[in-house]
Specification:
With 442 residues, the chain is of the alpha/beta class. It is built from 17 helices and 14 strands. Strands 3-2-1-4-5-6 form a six-stranded parallel beta sheet, with helices on both faces. The radius of gyration is 24 Å and the shape is elongated. The termini are far apart.
Amino acid sequence: MKIAVVGTGYVGLVTGSCLADVGMDVTCVDVDQKKIANLNKGVLPIYEPGLEDIVERNTAAGRLKFTTKLTDAIQGAEAAFIAVGTPPGEDGSADLRYVLAVAREIGETMADYLVVITKSTVPVGTAEKVKKELAAALAARGANIPFDVASNPEFLKEGAAIEDFQKPDRIVCGVESERAQEVLARIYKPFTLNGHHVYFMDVPSAEMTKYAANAMLATKISFMNDIANLCELLGADVNAVRKGIGSDSRIGNRFIYPGIGYGGSCFPKDVKALVRTGRESGYELRILQSVEDVNEAQKHVLFTKVKKHFGDLKGKHFAMWGLSFKPETDDMREAPALVICEQLIAAGATVTAYDPVAMPECKHMIGDKIGYADDAYAALHGADALLLVTEWREFRVPDWSRVKKALRSPVVFDGRNIYSGDELIELGFAYRGIGVSDRNPG
């Protein structure tokens, strides 16, 4: 089965690689010539555990190819996935210019029946716009070629995307014809042999499912951060509260960990887009607007704690562990670390950071505004405090005696509540967590 995947970003590269890994003939297309040249050399544009091995194995086997020419990918393909970016516009709406440009080009080059599948996260109604672009391009050619447009939103977690694709908890497919459903059923058959569910539905419902899922998860995060802030004011311990409510099966214990706000490519963009979609339909999504407001405010919490502890920050120097918005990814989009760095710098402080994989991306985004260390302990030397921003596994059990020796003052600001305040107090540290009372030694 031959498949085309347009876009070699996070979604497109994972999709194309995993489809090739089950034996399909996949060609990935991108307009970025440098990116394609690098992919053909085995150099990936993103960090995702396990992805490099899959790309290397399948390119060597000839099942996975990369090109800048859409015609090469479409020729003989049964399906074409559109997996290009949909960045948020200034008003929060999803920018569909790249999606529609791809649809137009597919219509200009396709020669046989094709199922065009939107894999990018797109607002409800996008499939209709894609259909119109395809039809207009075919009409301009005077070509009468049948096609279907389907919606197949991705539910990949950065850092666990390969497992999510290979062992999905659900596959959502929006279709309008039995022929399109049959094509999608064959594409996903290798992933459903172990009982993983495929949900076929109408196209608008599939488009909405992706936004609704991300909005619900974002809501849980912002809700818990709101509760954490109240806990701190009242002297309650949000870690105990989290365990207490997480044991309720109706709530569950996932996505209720307090912290310094969510980031990344999905939650911020999708919440904004859904709020905008509601507004355009004459309906205010007040809960989701509050979710976004709480999240933006939460990114300032750690800086506020630093300011409260030290007062004037001019001349102070801080060590930061973690830059990416979450572990197991180099994604810095909407990362709380960016907000914290900007605030510290504006207050006259300096920062030295260490992240296992995200430092090159951070340098690309903010350059030399902060310093970068070769390892976690090197970042600590001469710092007035340690700020834990991303809960990478290697930060979970540090050598605290080494940390204390390297710092000017033994203070830990735990932005992800991964450390035991009691343990750190015993070791002589001041501890500042999220949703818990300040803890001081002595």
